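Appendix C reproduces, verbatim, an entry submitted by the partner laboratory led by Prof. M.T., so that reviewers can inspect both the input and the predicted structure.
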Amino acid sequence: MRILQYEGISRMSKYIRFLTWNRTTHTAIELDDGRVIEAWNGESCKAVRIVDSLHTLHTPGTIVKAYAVPELTQLQSDLIHAWLLQQVGKPYAFWKGCMRFVTRRDPQPYDPQSFLIEDYQPKKWFCSCLAFSALMQVNFNLLERIAPWRVSPGHINLSPRLKLDEVITVKADLSDLSVFSKAQSLQPKASPHA
């Protein structure tokens, strides 16, 4: 499993960069088989989706930094995968996600010393919030004392628990632009990183 950090070049990415003061505009999780789960706000999908490739529907030329999570065990990775599959299809939190960085408004009471991920059950997801929450499901905190809804894509890069694995430039992916639903079979594929 890897954390993907996109430095987007689309109009939407420029907007997110402006709101969050960071070059990183999108976060996704790449599964061991190469598929990607992300909270996505595009013309064809405004929800948590699972796709075949980190290139799918992203603007060609976008830089993606893929980070390994060396301390993550295989059991933790499997549990995160299962939890993420339960999120597929939930709507994307555009206004509440992006505007939270401007308004600094918390969606619920928050004490950084006593916060439990079980107390946070949003109906919509912002990309970095989804990835951060997924890791918290297995008590793996990328950053300490911060709530998932306060995490912008650029915050993820600050984690000392991530190791830069690869820098990739997005290519046009015309082979498969479909979005998988929960109802479809999600059998593992051979891992390209094995």
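The domain at 2-169 is CATH 3.90.1720.10 (endopeptidase fold (from Nostoc punctiforme)). Additional entries are available on request from the coordinating office.
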